[in-house]
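Convert to structure. Protein one:
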Amino acid sequence: MRYLFGLVVAVFFCVSVQAQNSSISANEDSASQSPRNWAFSVVADGYFVPHSSFFVSPVVTADRKRLHLEARYNYEDQQTGSLWIGYNFNVGRNLVLEATPMIGAVVGKTAGIAPGYAVSLTYKRLSLSSSGEFVFDARHRSESFFYSWPQLAYSVTDWMRLGLAAQRTKAYQTELDIQRGVFIGLSYKKVEFTGYVFNFGWTEPTVVLEAAFSF
């Protein structure tokens, strides 16, 4: 696993350096080049789980055309990090499908390799999305698991979303194997704040507060 993790890190670093050099060369050749080649995002989720310690799960992404790079912590499990590489594609105009198949290396409290995905289907103000992965545990095969976070969102305005969400995760445990709940999201320019309440009405609720910034 150390070699696999090192390989993913090396790919991540080399692609980033190559992209930066290409961007510099392009800017020197012509000032009229297309907009920025890279798009970045930083997302942090704070988890308030009943009878458990508070923890934060940060995710950083970098996208350039078809290439998708991603780093996560406390996502597959607490005290666990992962690095990902994937391929972006989208189809459609009115009904838009966006998908990113990925492969990742997971190290820490949980270690292994994970094929994963992010997919969304959008029509006007309605959006159905899901992210997931299957973690093949390198230490204990019986500990391999499937993670998923589907959600259905409706944009009430350009700056507010309402919706339903579910989550199956190993990062924390409650009386329910599948977490289910509602959320509200507020956005301003490139910043977005989302609040989730899971399991309300079934057991003690879990609250997730998310802050996202894109640039």
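Protein two, convert as well:
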Amino acid sequence: MDEARFAVFDGVAWQDDAVAISPNGAATQFRVIEFDHVVAAGATSQTTGVIPAGEQVIGISGQVLSGLDASGATSWELGVSGSTNRYGSSLGLSAGSWIRGLTSAPLTYWSDTPLLMTAVGGSFSSGSVRFAIHTVALKYPRGS
């Protein structure tokens, strides 16, 4: 309760975020990883919060907390290195603008992966965004 997370006791241990659990503790977990990001000056801003290694991303949601000051930029994109608009394009710069980017087909990231914000037509100077990464994780069963 102190972490505002759902937990189920599987007979041996407590399992966080589990939606299905086997008799030996294997679990399917749905997670929401939420963090605030202060935008760095430049054409792109990489988050310190990451998509965890080995988790499958359903999508990313978020909201601009304080307006994104952007010199010449008309909007921004959200993605990852190599796919800068995977989770959104033509996103709003003003406070209260929201992000809801679904992954077309669920995608597994095999290493910790930061999000990448890209200013369209200019560069960022300041602002902040709250991100929520929606994932599925698999937990292996206990050994004997």
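The first strand starts at residue 7 and ends at 9. The radius of gyration is 18 Å.
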